[in-house]
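Field: sequence (string)
Field: structure_tokens (string)

Example rows 1 and 2, in order.
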Amino acid sequence: MWEGLRLQVLLLCLGAVLWSSAAVAGSRGPQDRGHRHHHPSVYRSRERRKEGQVLHRSKRGWVWNQFFVIEEYTGPDPVLVGRLHSDVDTGDGNIKYILSGEGAGTIFVIDDRTGNIHATKTLDREEQAEYTLTAQAVARDTNKPLEPPSEFIVKVQDINDNPPVFLHGPYYASVAEMSNVGTSVIQVTASDADDPTYGNSAKLVYSILQGQPYFSVEPHSGIIRTALPNMDREAKQEYDVVIQAKDMGGHMGGLSGTAQVKITLTDVNDNPPKFSQGVYAMSVSEDKVPGEEVGRLKAKDTDQGENGLVDYTVLEGDGMNYFEISKDSETQEAVIKLKKPVDFETKRSYTLKVEATNPYLDTRFISWGPYKDTTIVKISVEDADEPPSFMATSYTFEVEENAPGGTLVGRVHARDTDIANNPIRYLIPRYTDLEEFFTISPEDGTIKTTRSLDRETQAWHNISVSATEIGGHHQDAKVRVNIKVKDVNDNAPEFATQEEVLMCENVTPGTIIKTVSAVDKDEMAHRQHFHFSLAPRVANNLNFSLKDNRGDTANVMVIRRGFSRMTQGVYELPIEINDNGVPPMSSTNTLMIRVCSCDSKGTILSCNVEPFVLPAGLSTGALIAILACIVILLAIVVLFVALRRQKKEPLIVLEEEDIRENIITYDDEGGGEEDTEAFDIATLQNPDGANGFLPRSNLRLSVHVKSPLFFFYYEDIIITIIIIFNLFISSFSLMAYIIILPCEKIAICPVAVRNS
């Protein structure tokens, strides 16, 4: 690469030297200055106006072409870019050349006497491709412009100094496996910073350095294509390809760059599922329940994604009714589960034929099929210590009620299904027969009653029987036993409801006052009904009759008129009810009929007995008693007031009175010393300090009180007692009136009041 670069620099330098020589020669020959395009020439334009001469216009003094300088020059001396010369320059050194513009004074310098321009630094076209400068000739002593300024351009001439670069690498691409030859994979593009308009520095050619013989690349477009048919992803999935881009049209001496391309083969469904074994062996214990897993198997498919999905089905086999197959979506395994219980003693092995298929097929590769595989699954049944098995899932027995204890109810039977066939022991768990109505024989499973049963108390008995094998692991099993108590006609019928019948006094004969019905605790047979009749002792009564409705009811009717509750308030009508069962049962039930007072519309007013059957308002006797009490009370009050007015003395003894004013007399002879010993004279003198007296045994004392104090005291007590008694009598009469009268009107008096 550097040999080519040195060759190019050498050629460019040689061309620059020749060009410079030609430029100098052109400046000496005015006949060539306007005809050599690639050399800068200087013309002077003058217009002289002389009197007597013809005026004419000469050519311009400055005509500039482009200057060229080669890039990346690394020689020891500055590079001569060109030379400026004006036709006013006579070579005496009075002309001064000035250079300004881009890079003037730094990159480009000018000899102000000769006009030679040199490049003092190495130029890079990729940094700046051209420079615009301005040249001017001035007088050296006055710096007056001798010519107008003029611009010219210095272009940097390109050399192949930049290799191609892949700006977007590394690249990643994919292509389907089994693709046809020439299938496009990806396009890669390189960039060259050199001038594409100059030579072949930027003309790129692509080639593949790594990845043959699987892939190829188009030289000018950079498109990578498949080069081999039937590339299999399952054999190799990823390929590392290296692409080269070379400038100079790919010729020797050109620069190059490379890019890495990772190509991945994507999957297509080109492989069928495959079982690793032709026969799979599994086992299941006979005590497993439906739904439990038996085993797994898997058909491998080397494809990926949905192309590698596998479905499983059972095609045939004697185990199709006992086993089912499903798929684990995560592991893609076939899961065989128990569908129905299996029995080691009945059948010890089963066979299934399982098929694996791809649910998604690629039509391009159907001819490569078939995309399925089959295998055989053999399942052996293992023996397990199973609990005893009853001959029936449940038992139902019947026993008559009232049967004596020890009556046979039925027999349950269980057996050990294992090969050992151990004996069985039976038991009734007490929690299912808390009252212990039944007992069971441990050896043969015979169930008997322990006492008589009553259907009306409990019609069904639901118990459990446990069967346990003797020996082994003592496995047990339970079965439900339902015992129905058969009915026996042992209950007499009776009234459905016990209600009192209310009947009006003015009821008309033939009126139905009650429809009675009956119930029986026993079961009624088909077409069995009750029979109603009056008890023999009232069969010929003149008050009521009974009509049997030939069903479960009977009508009670009145056969006379003129009932009076004052004569008889309540009637008892005994009715005999027969259930017509086997054996027949009958009972006598009494219907209570109460006579009531009713209005003309038949509305009941009162059903009380005579002492409390009163008309509205108070009776004459009650009114007289109340008025008498009031009169007596008023008379006593008037008498008491009159007596008070007649008395002048106050009713009480004032504190100022002396008790000594009272005269005490007694008809007894003086006792001498005994009298003085019997009474303390000091008491009479000072009654406040009296401490008592000692009476004589034979003294008869009578006291005559002069003051009315004691008389009025006893009088007040008597008057108070009389007033309280009258108030009590009046209150009782009013209370009886308030309580009894309303309940008489609505006929709902309490029973105690009615019967009092």
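Row 2 begins here:
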Amino acid sequence: MVQKYQSPVRVYKHPFELIMAAYERRFPTCPLIPMFVDSDTVNEFRSEDGAIHVIERRCKLDIDAPRLLKKIAGVDYVYFIQKNSLNSRERTLHIEAHNETFSNRVIINELCCYSVHPENEDWTCFEQSASLDIKSFFGFESTVEKIAMKQYTSNIKKGKEIIEYYLRQLEEEGITFVPRWTPPAAAPSLETSLSCKKPAASLTVVVPDPTLKEGLSGEPLSTPSGAAEPTAGTPDDKLDADYIKRYLGDLTPLQESCLIRLRQWLQETHKGKIPKDEHILRFLRARDFNIDKARETMCQSLTWRKQHQVDYILDTWHPPQVLQDYYAGGWHHHDKDGRPLYVLRLGQMDTKGLVRALGEEALLRYVLSINEEGLRRCEENTKVFGRPISSWTCLVDLEGLNMRHLWRPGVKALLRIIEVVEANYPETLGRLLILRAPRVFPVLWTLVSPFIDDNTRRKFLIYAGNDYQGPGGLLDYIDKEIIPDFLSGECMCEVPEGGLVPKSLYRTAEELENEDLKLWTETIYQSASVFKGAPHEILIQIVDASSVITWDFDVCKGDIVFNIYHSKRSPQPPKKDSLGAHSITSPGGNNVQLIDRVWQLGRDYSMVESPLICKEGESVQGSHVTRWPGFYILQWKFHSTPACAATNLPRVDDVLASLQVSSHKCKVMYYTEVIGSEDFRGSMTSLESSHSGFSQLSAATTSSSQSHSSSMISRWRFC
């Protein structure tokens, strides 16, 4: 397996020429790098005008490896070839290095670059990348890989220290300025000066916050993208090392590399909104910086966020008054570490009443809005306290908890909420303080704890009775001045006190279902229910042949079959299915059938694309180039395979079964658009509409070629 490393951009606040003077002092040997024993020049070239200087060295390294391994390998030293190409005119230094020793068994390649900062010509940028591929090594491949990565990361940490050491040495010798290169025997012309000042065009340093720019210098470096998100879709975007330390925390070189590589993968493949760096880092931490696992869970989460429009929940969704009055939770200052503090008086909350009055979907959506608000508060506190804050503290007061809280539907709703939050908000809980746990708490804990991640469980601190007031209690984590009054503190807490929800506010399952459907319509998408025997169909009239019908839909619930039909005559006006056979009231306009039961396939209408089976949770985008004018019908039809049989996601068997209102019902969100052939850009498998802004992960693309050469369905599965 090839190990790869990619560094962030390291910025030296010194001119390029002074950095080069410091760099050259590393040769022929460097006392700050004990393993660097010596180096010999094997080849050198200098252009007539002195602008280009290429030097090739053979470097001798004493690797810190077990003596037995060195004896088996038959070597005491390892040799590398390093080629440095200095272009004084463009003010760049490119470094290429590869191993000479054991090159038939181990392949090591390193690329480094020093260049002028694109926004400040008196600063210098440095970045490096490397790869390690161990083919075979006497049965010690794993050991050699660990040794190589340990040595490499150790040298990376020392890299900046070494340059700064030699900069101080130059300063002690009175050298604080090195003139730029100029053509020999001629004064530099204006054109030459401008050429010398030209920044390296390939480097873009992204500084996602204005306060960081002010910390680096008194003048702007680049246009800020804001704390909200870095610039999307530009593979050359780089992360600055100072930005990582300021806003993301102290990461090891390998952790920095994982972050940069996953971020770059998203920039290259994800056409929608790029997650914030803090959010990417959370997924990496939750998977112990395993890029493949983090990428998989992040793709699932991005699909989920898109389906449920979570990015806009704080702006478009407002909690019902029942939640505002009876949900006993709210934000309350911050803990001693600067983390936002959320207080939940669970013992005072009528979970059964809230579920009966609001339904599980509204409760889940409220919890999602709390998590989104928590992310926003973490960003604010990062700026306020001047250090990275990526999680919050939750204080749960269980006084009043009794068997009423173990109501089975309420526990199931809680388990579902935990499942969703664990999957989509990893590493956001910094600490959970559970206070005044009663005797019934172990029962609830036994039910809930199996569904909580091990890393999260380790953050739980549980206090029975008034133990939280003693040593190791609340005062260790929260300042005395902000301990809530209901915990014998001095601070007035504005969290609602909860209480019983009046039964007059309870609603039927049908009423709750109708409201849940409305939550999906606050978007450019249309929503539809698909029932067994009652497909949902939409009509598109095409006047000009070779028009392009495009679609984007998400399968929110159940499995469906997607079909496209053509008819020369218009169907009768849409009739809404009464759904009497299903014993479910159909919300207005959410299920429409166009194809008359007396129509015959092949006589009255024809199929123009092969059926496409779409599983629950999939996002599908595609296009069809029409061959004839007339009427096209897009149909979403119920597929009989159970959704749960097709998913690999862990499920709570007895919980999720209860979440289905009907086992014969599916939900889809869709958007369609007709584009003239002259306005359709890109290939059939790369839909680009100026009116569509859908998320697409092209790396996870599968396409199905159809019988007609003029049409193709493109399909992206987010998994």
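free_text_note (row 2): The first strand starts at residue 3 and ends at 6.
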